[in-house]
Specification:
alpha+beta; Nucleoside Triphosphate Pyrophosphohydrolase; 7-stranded mixed β-sheet; 5 helices; 7 strands; 31% strand
Length: 183
């Protein structure tokens, strides 16, 4: 693979320190997919899936995290989505997705904070497939938000509240990590 985005993604994943066995398994699966000869950044790669990028955005005072009510899934989630060919890398894809879904573009980077694999349900001609989500932390320079593309709502949730969502480890695990850095 000559795509520099793959090289950078591999470096990010290899440097990442999983906090539990679940996240370690995600890391192993992601590195395995990078070893394949398939275009794992393409949104049309369904077996087993493709990489996505998302952002956990902290409020300026670092007490809240920004979530969007996802139109297709009818759930509160972090903003994120597919990597586009023009994205320089996964962090730039996450920044673009945050701006598109929340209107927030003034973002300070906290780097890679979490990785996750979750299944996206079949829709139209697309089969059910995995999203191998590479998640970046950001600090917002504003509290002003506006629901945009793919979101029916957007709001700040207290970070400690999200960290207590034991039934949603995909959100509570990164929230715990962000709580540790925000104090």
């Amino acid at each position: 693979m000559t795509d520099l985005r793959f090289t950078h993604l591999r470096e990010l994943l290899e440097a990442h320190h999983p906090v539990d066995t679940r996240e370690a398994g995600y890391q192993e699966a992601m590195l395995g997919l990078l070893d394949s000869d398939r275009d794992a950044l393409s949104r049309h790669h369904f077996d087993p899936g493709h990489f996505t990028a998302s952002g956990f955005v902290l409020s300026p005072d670092r007490t809240s995290v920004l979530l969007v009510h996802h139109a297709k899934l009818d759930k509160w989630l972090q903003p994120g989505g597919h990597v586009e060919p023009e994205d320089a890398g996964l962090e730039s894809a996450a920044r673009r997705e945050v701006a598109e879904e929340t209107g927030v573009a003034d973002l300070g980077s906290m780097g890679l904070v979490d990785i996750d694999i979750h299944q996206f349900p079949a829709r139209g001609s697309e089969p059910a497939h995995d999203h191998l989500d590479v998640r970046f932390g950001f600090r917002s320079g504003t509290h002003l938000v506006e629901a945009g593309e793919g979101a029916v709502g957007v709001r700040w949730f207290p970070l400690d509240e999200v960290a207590s969502w034991h039934d949603r480890p995909s959100l509570s695990r990164p929230a715990h990590k962000l709580l540790a850095t925000s104090t």
